[in-house]
Q: What sequence folds into this?
């Protein structure tokens, strides 16, 4: 289970955890979250969002928002994903998430193997959402926020099953893409969408 080991390494000063949701889908934005937790008032059961049920994530999202010192969200749009590529769009979303924090941090812990080019001292932690409580909290906020966006988008584009697949390339999504073509929320730089756009 994640713990505060990495946060404590980089104190004194506030330490934020950052993670993203939505690098792999064929449609929708990429969303990042940044969280500065209070060690003395940390919700129990924080973990990599992929290891939690939807019901548990929803409960923890509310607890994180209520009990964290501060938190922020950052979004990179489909147009930004297509113009920058998904890696740099993800870095942009992470930067926006840290900028959205109401308190500045001394260090940022980033899930993954590289950090954005930004003004904060930072450390990349591979599988950080399973090791670091702040990153785990960020993973929950990012996934919950993005899932809501895709459920809302599904109402406007009902053929693709986004309410369940959240924009990932499920069989239903790919079949609808072949039948109905891409929407403005599809990432045209991603191969399955780009190939259909050429037909």
A:
């Amino acid at each position: 289970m994640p713990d505060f080991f990495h946060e404590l390494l980089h104190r004194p000063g506030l330490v934020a955890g950052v993670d993203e949701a939505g690098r792999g889908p064929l449609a929708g934005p990429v969303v990042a979250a940044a969280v500065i937790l209070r060690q003395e008032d940390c919700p129990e059961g924080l973990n990599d969002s992929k290891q939690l049920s939807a019901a548990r994530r929803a409960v923890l999202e509310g607890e994180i928002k209520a009990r964290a010192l501060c938190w922020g969200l950052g979004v990179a749009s489909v147009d930004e994903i297509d113009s920058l590529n998904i890696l740099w769009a993800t870095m942009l979303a992470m930067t926006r998430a840290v900028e959205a924090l109401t308190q500045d941090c001394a260090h940022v812990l980033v899930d993954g193997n590289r950090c954005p080019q930004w003004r904060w001292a930072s450390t990349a932690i591979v599988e950080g959402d399973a090791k670091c409580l702040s990153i785990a909290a960020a993973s929950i906020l990012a996934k919950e926020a993005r899932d809501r966006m895709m459920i809302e988008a599904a109402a406007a584009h009902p053929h693709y099953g986004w309410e369940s697949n959240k924009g990932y390339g499920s069989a239903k999504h790919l079949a609808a893409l072949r039948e109905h073509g891409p929407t403005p929320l599809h990432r045209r730089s991603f191969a399955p969408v780009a190939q259909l756009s050429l037909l």
Notes: The chain has one domain: 2-195. Helices lie at 5-9, 54-67, 78-84, 86-99, 133-156, 162-165, 171-180, 191-197. The mean pLDDT is 96.
